[in-house]
Design brief:
mainly beta, Neuraminidase, 1 helix, globular, disordered N terminus
Length: 350
């Protein structure tokens, strides 16, 4: 895919250092010394984009040529195997990529290692409106349904296993579950119950063991208004507190540690964190991913409006795996983009 340079007007006292693909450092204040180029740990490299089953299935040249002769022109792509309204993304330890699709009511699974594509949500009842998604260390997959208030659990082979709900009946624990995360160390499951303004914590068996926040919401430390995404990493719980336009960082027991104020956040904003403690927040209004230090300072931004590699139209769901491969849901472009983020634990993304 072609890459285009970005021309920015620069005043005599303002220095802007632009990296590849629209990744820019913060402009210097008047009178400040020009900033040095970003360190290698801050660099981001585009790897690939994908949007359908055709992107993961390797063509067989001889077979394809034979089919072209017999069948003529290429058939229309199956619309179920194409991203329609992608929302959230995650990976498992087998490097499979899971993308929730609120428009189709399915979860797309891209297995590039084995050139396979399949979906979750083929049962009669479907998945409703799948929103958040997470995988545990056994590669079981947890999918939140923001419409029904249910969380469905699938095993590593994609077979539906159970709901996370009250054991006494069909009532759900949740009112509007969105973001979900699994702490692989403790096997605890964390869920943003957005309409209740709370974070619900469950054990591996699905029993509620803790709650953070208060039912009517609030703006004080440790309180939330419409929390939508969360990440559990390094003994901390990072929550996108969308209604308060901030990120809150809690300790493992839910005690407030610090916050990062955001200019804008909504239910479509994504959240991720890396092993170095940096925090990533997407903003679909300016089509950028902002990267913050562990202490909350803005380090740099990724991307801008567009359709080319490293550009976004509706930047939303984020996921950063253990190898520092960053996945960005590019919603209105109906695709997911993958980047390599340099830093501790970084590998060569496939």
């Amino acid at each position: 895919m072609a890459r285009h340079s970005l021309d920015l007007p620069c005043g005599s006292r303002v220095a802007v250092v632009c990296l590849i693909l629209g990744i820019c450092s913060i402009a210097q204040a008047p009178g400040a010394q020009p900033s040095s180029p970003p360190s290698p740990a801050e660099r981001v490299r585009f790897i690939r984009e994908f949007s359908s089953a055709q992107d993961v299935r390797r063509p067989h040249p001889v077979l394809n040529k034979t089919l072209d002769i017999i069948a003529g022109s290429k058939p229309i792509e199956n619309p179920v195997e194409v991203l329609k309204t992608p929302f959230a993304v995650t990976t498992d330890s087998w490097h499979r990529i899971f993308v929730t699709d609120t428009g189709l009511g399915k979860v797309h699974i891209f297995d590039f290692d084995h050139s396979r594509y399949f979906t979750l949500g083929n049962s009669r009842e479907g998945l409703g409106r799948p929103a958040g998604i997470a995988a545990d260390r056994e590669n079981n997959v947890y999918v939140t349904d923001s419409n029904s208030g249910a969380i469905r659990v699938f095993d590593s082979k994609g077979k539906f296993r159970r709901y996370l709900k009250e054991s006494r009946g069909s009532e759900s624990y949740f009112q509007q579950p969105l973001g979900i995360a699994v702490d692989t160390a403790t096997e605890r499951i964390y869920v943003c119950d957005s309409s209740r303004h709370m974070i619900i914590v469950l054990d591996k068996k699905g029993r509620v063991i803790d709650r953070f926040g208060k039912r009517n919401g609030g703006a004080r430390p440790g309180e939330f208004r419409y929390p939508t995404q969360l990440v559990v990493s390094g003994g901390e719980i990072t929550v996108l507190d969308s209604g308060n336009r901030r990120v809150q960082i809690l300790d493992s027991r839910g005690h407030f540690q610090r916050e990062i104020q955001l200019g804008y956040a909504d239910k479509d904003s994504g959240l991720a964190a890396d092993a170095d403690g940096k925090i990533y927040v997407s903003d679909s209004t300016v089509n950028q991913v902002r990267v913050f230090s562990h202490d909350g300072g803005l380090l740099y931004r990724i991307g801008h409006m567009g359709t080319q590699a490293g550009e976004f139209d509706g930047a939303s769901g984020l996921w950063l795996d253990s190898g520092n491969c960053l996945y960005v849901v590019d919603a209105r472009n109906k695709r997911v983009q993958e980047f390599q983020v340099a830093g501790p634990g970084a590998i060569t993304c496939p």
